């Protein structure tokens, strides 16, 4: 099946950091987790995909179209949530929603009201009056209310309590099952991936270390097992051991 998102050899340089030849693809109705330690390049990858930062080279194909050429058209079909963006802090949620819904031709008010209720959000509050978790939930409600076929989410679960996180992961699974939608989200929380993802892309120092379906991904790190490990390694163990071997290398240099 044709990928909904194909990222091809993206390069982006900052002083002291570079995304190098970042490539991966996401098939329809799949959830992909983007993992990597702090500063590995997860947000920069998502921003480069969305042209929020301009990559020096590389390409992004979304819905079989060149995203950079058909950006406006593609953006109608996606939902995007980035943490830490306090847009319109002094505006009430109802006002922000009124502006947002004008942008989307496929806005679904019933769906929006369903999520507002489910997330227990008060639309008469100002954006800055929301807690971090509530901000994420509100932005998700907006993203989920125009029948997006692809959600791109930067650490959507990081500000959430365990109950809300569980609920959100459940919603992700429901969306992918019931609607024509794929999800790409970055996270630090490896248990999110255990519970929810089909595919995993691991970024280390701006490069894709591995990108595959979860089983293939886990198998490809079996070399990190020691004789003391009876079962398969967890994702947390894989990350810890991969990053630790880097520290060991640093020490011997
Ligand atoms: N606008 C910018 N100018 C210069 N350097 C930047 C800029 N944005 C990001 N960087 C650098 O790029 C690197 C990757 O940052 P990025 O935010 O993509 O990492 P991340 O994997 O999302 O990290 P975290 O898990 O901490 O959010 C970091 O070294 C960061 O300092």
The residue ranges in which pLDDT falls below 50 over 5 or more consecutive positions are none
Question: What general form does the structure show?
Answer: globular
Q: N-to-C terminal Cα separation, in Å?
A: 45 Å
Bound molecules: adenosine-5'-triphosphate
User: Could you say which structural class the secondary elements and strand pairing correspond to?
Assistant: alpha/beta
CA radius of gyration: 19 Å
Q: Count up the helices.
A: 9
Tell me the total number of β-strands.
10
Largest sheet: 6 strands, mixed
Note the run of SSEs as H and E.
Answer: EEEHEEHEHHHEHEHEEHH
| Strands in their spatial order, largest beta sheet | 6-7-8-3-9-10
**Share of β-strand residues:** 15-25%
| Helix fraction bin | 25-40%
In round numbers, the mean pLDDT is: 90
Protein name: ABC transporter ATP-binding protein
Organism: Turicibacter bilis
GO molecular function: ATP binding
Keywords: ATP-binding, Nucleotide-binding, Transport
